[in-house]
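for the writeup, i need someone to sanity check this before i put it in the appendix. the sequnce is what the collaborator sent (i think, or maybe the updated version? ugh). structure was predicted straight from it, no edits. if anything looks off just tell me and ill rerun, i have time this weekend
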Amino acid sequence: MSITADSSNLADQERLRSQAEQLTKRRRQRERRFSRGVRISYIVLFLLLAFLFSGFHAEAFGRTFKTIGLDWGFIRTYIPFIFRGVWLTILLSILAIGLSIILAILGALGRLSKSPPAYALATFYVSLIRGTPLLLQLFFFFLALPQLGIVLTGMTAGVLALGINYGAYNTEIVRAGIQSVGVGQREAALAIGMTNNQIMRRIVLPQALKLTIPPLGNQFIAMLKDTSLVATTGFVWELLWRAQKVGRANFRSLEALLIAAVFYWIITIIFSAVQDRIEARVARGERQLS
């Protein structure tokens, strides 16, 4: 009886193992088919985009069909000039997002503070900045501050405008991250004698910043594109400013703006990939700790 039972158990285990292997095999096949379908779809979309700007021209059924024609000689000539604005765009974004995170942490602490002046100041800052357009704030630094005797360079004004604007939006992101940390952890820290400042600095803020990495990363990517607003001042030779300059000078604004659009797209893809790597590393670290 024992030998028969053991044989039955081994047969059941073998059958379960075989079923699990079959399920895993089918899942991998579905994943491969999905990946292959995505790659094919990408190729089709890029071909359609290339056809849209191919300059194709044909007549059929008494109607003229044509796509957008581009001056490829102009594009080849001015790509290097426009490309030099990429580094300034990235630098502007990094400095501005750094300022915005500092302001966001201070604003979030103010919004959660029991001090009436701190709460009022943080709330007023968030309300004012979120209630006015970014472009208006940018021109404020160029037009209003000089009347107070404060004259800023184009780069400084751009960093301040973008940093202060995004700091107001990031304040709510950081505040939500701080509030998501469990009350039990704070109570446990108080029980072992930690002060409120130590709890915030050593327990709450590190966890809150981990939770805010995805939305803050999205804000940074959005800021990369909003740096184009700095071009309206004419004082910062970033990506869009260079594209507009050569486009207007050569009556090829469409080609110049398309070059800028492609560079913005490439920058966004690169930093999106970096963001995904950071999020994956943070998630892997949390799984290892748990």
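The chain is about 80% helix and 5% strand. The chain has a mean pLDDT of 84.
thx in advance!!
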